[in-house]
Amino acid sequence: QVQLVESGGGLVQAGGSLTLSCAASGSIFSINAMGWYRQTPGNQRELVARITRGGITNYADSVKGRFTISRTNAAVYLQMYSLKPEDTAVYLCNAQTVQRADYWGQGTQVTVSS
């Protein structure tokens, strides 16, 4: 079992920046990839950024060049720059184990005002 707790969301003006953090506990040795997803009402959850244990990253096209994901063994971070109103969403932390089990945090709200 892996537990995830996010922090760092909030309200920011367009063009501003925020950093999200996600702390993992429990069976952290089993974690392979960690990532951030986001979801808005009525829409499917979408991948924002993902990073493997080996440091390989991938990003949604909409955030490339503006967001940076990084991690330690027990945490994952998302640095967000040049935020846009369309980045407004609940951001959820994800951990995938080597057994391909998925774990999710409770989510943190990011609101970007125009």
Cα gyration radius (Å): 13 Å
Largest sheet: 7 strands, mixed
Strand proportion, as a percent range, falls in: over 45%
Order of helices and strands: EEEEEEEEEEE
Q: How would you state the average pLDDT, rounded?
A: 97
SS field, number of helical segments: 0
User: How would you describe the oligomerization state of the chains in this entry?
Assistant: single chain
What structural class is derived from the secondary structure elements?
mainly beta
Report the strand count.
Answer: 11
pLDDT below 50 for ≥5 consecutive residues: which ranges? none
Separation of the first and last Cα atoms? 40 Å
The 3D shape can be described as globular
The residue fraction in helices comes out at: under 10%
What descriptors fit this protein?
114 residues, mainly beta, 0% helix, 58% strand, globular
What features would you describe in this structure?
Strands 2, 4, 5, 6, 9, 10 and 11 form a seven-stranded mixed sheet that branches. Strands 1-3-8-7 form a four-stranded antiparallel sheet, with no helix packed on it. The termini are far apart. The protein is mainly beta. The protein is built from no helices and eleven strands.
